[in-house]
Amino acid sequence: MQKRSHLPDEAPRPRTENTAAVALSLVSASGLALEVAFTRIFSLTFQYHYAFLAVSLAVLGLGLGAILGRFLTRSHSDSAPDSAGERAASLALLALSVTLPSIAVLLAVFPSTSSILQSTAATLVPFLLIGLFESLTFARLPAHSGLLYGADLLGAAIGAAAVLGLLSRLGAFNVLIALGTVVALAAVVLHISLSDRRHLVAALLCLAFSSGLLALNLISSPIAFYPDRLTGAPPDKTMISLLHDPSQSARIAYTAWDPFARVDVVETEDPAAKFVFTDGGAGSTMHRFDGSLEQLASLRETPEFLPFTLGPAEHTLVLGAGAGKDILLALLAGGQTITAVEVNPAMVKATRYFGDFNGHILDRPQVRLVVGDARTFVERTSDRYDLIYLNLVYTQAAEPASQALVENYVFTRQAFHAYLDRLTPRGHLAIVSHNALEGSRAAITGLQALADDGEPLPRALRHLALLMLPVHDPTQRLSVMVLGKQPLREREIHRLAAGAGRLGMRPLFLSGIFEAPFAPLLKGASLREFLAGDTTYDLHPTSDDQPFFFKIDPGPPAPITQALLAAAALAIFALILGVWQLRREKRSDGQKNRVAIVPYVALTGAGFMLLEVPFIQRFQLLLGYPVLSVALVLGTLLLAGGLGSLLSQRWPRENLRRRVVVAAVLIGATGLLYRLILPPLVRHLLPAPLAWRILTTAALTALIGIPMGIPFPGALRLAGKQRGRDMPLIWGVNGAFSVLGSTLAVVIAMTWGFGRVMTAGAVCYLALAMLAWRINVY
């Protein structure tokens, strides 16, 4: 057996590796698509910030499945294929094809926000089965790790691209059922290759079950999300409360899915309005409009109209057009040209669907509609506006990446700089917020932007007005912030004061009238000193590096902290298990340096996620479409990584270690370089056409993505020639640290910024470059 360790690198079963790669690719595509579908369902059923849980559960399940595979693999040699492991892989694939549609039924039949534990447990099962199948496949064919890992990443890239279209066409629940069909197809392909007739018949039955259920659901939709069945909804799921209120007689009149969110239009007994909700919250009002503004004159007596009383707003920019209410406000104020930006295509589709009701508000002659990211539009446009207006810009929808909300980039100090630059000389920026805390943070961010431009804080405060609607519930204290390009004139201040008095609003800052809350700044205190005086809430100005505007409580949110502790515990357990197992077996077979593979694969798992997360965030601003950013960056990263893995499979083993080290060093150096150059590069490229921005994003991602596909499969080949049984354990450690890396990325970003996240990922790869020299070839 010792002599076999010096034989050429060859497959133990040369006829099966290509079929295994195809099956692995289909399963990997299903896993990535499943992860995105679960983020949509979690954001809809629970709350948007639970969506990141789907990502963590995915990586957790993959890791646990891989560790389970370790104990199902008996063979210690690739030359004697493990029939038990092969049977377990086959059964895992069959079970997965049945589990996916079953979970769709479970989540649809028992929709309850109190069922988070049951839902997460159910969500974990398919990922565990995927991890089990993948780890057993690698254990059976370790010499072909480059081919298999390449197929794994290429499949994930296909899944990332395909799921975006599938969600729009089928909806999240039908996607789950469809993925069961894809997995069943993978099982059919695999068992035809293995000439396993018994399991082939089972695979065909699973395929018939999933495809038949999908056809039934497309016709009659018994398996779907019905909001009126949801119990225990949180207060911010206002659609659920409305549907459950018997006095409203509310009903859903229209529904649209897309990768960004689910949009519902709800009708009540009020014939003059409809309500449009994003993932059951973040409601927007659609008013009946026949072209006569006088029928909507009552809107002038609302806090949202207050900024329009400052003076002529002939050229208005509305960021977050929603269902058209803010456009109506601008028309009431005499707006001649209104540019309306809306990030969610499903919202636009819903509003246009009811065009006869709302007077085709998005397509009126005065309105120019832009579907895309508000911040990117402002950075790219050269137009000037009398008023830039943001009214409750808060989607409550999670990105497929599930790390940060898209609208947070609308409220950073860099965004405020862009807004001020796009105002006419006497123009104003107005932000309507849910409560005084958010309004105060917006005001402080605006003051910081003015201070960055050299305006002393006492003078900067003369640009500011902040008013609040005093109500008992602090979360409902609507606030209005106005920031002028120039100091507010006396007549503008009096108009705001008169409007506030008429509406029952209370000033939090109004120059010359009420200045107490910001008095220390008027006396010369810095913003840092001012904010240090009260640490109850975190009201520091946000930046593009830390765009978490709505996180006003100090420290990471409790769910993320709990997820980090759980991920750390899992990672430590996997690390200890891996070291203990390999140390114990090292004494029995005489191998040396086998333990080095454990921290090595741990660093690859954490490092990959620590780089992936900030890449998606950085390029979001450049591309202007959140869904495009996720699809392009994630898809390119996986595709390039797959190509790198396939490339490494062609390298002879005697040169493999050196090339793995070079790849790891290249990744680390490129990551550190990107941290420095990406922010200015993104700002420089914003005026370029979209095609050039897409090409640049793809090229920069591929440049680091290709070497990122090399270290992990390279280590598997170095360490796995005669030890296929170690492959599931290695996959388990990698998966556990991927969970830790993804959660740690969010915590580091919230605490220190995405730049530090990228640095941490680069350091992981530089560290594993040193560990690569200690991996024993056997």
Describe the structure.
With 778 residues, the protein is of the alpha/beta class. The chain folds into 2 domains: 3-224 and 554-774, MFS general substrate transporter like domains (Growth Hormone, Chain: A, Up-down Bundle); 302-532, Vaccinia Virus protein VP39 (Rossmann fold). Helices cover 58% and strands 10% of the residues. The strands form 2 sheets. The protein has an 8-stranded mixed β-sheet, sandwiched between helices. The longest helix has 33 residues, at 653-685. It is globular. 59% of the residues are buried.
Q: How widely separated are the two ends? A: 11 Å
Radius of gyration: 28 Å
Mean pLDDT: 83
Low-confidence stretches: 1-14, 75-81, 395-407
Estimated share of beta-strand residues: 5-15%
Count of distinct structural domains: 2
- Report the structural category: alpha/beta
Shape: globular
CATH superfamily of the largest domain: MFS general substrate transporter like domains
> Roughly what percent helix?
55-70%
- CATH-defined topology of the largest domain: Growth Hormone, Chain: A
User: Can you tell me the CATH class of the largest domain?
Assistant: Mainly Alpha
Number of strands: 12
- How many H/I helical runs? 26
Can you name the CATH architecture of the largest domain? Answer: Up-down Bundle
The order of strands across the largest sheet is 7-6-5-8-9-11-10-12
Largest sheet: 8 strands, mixed
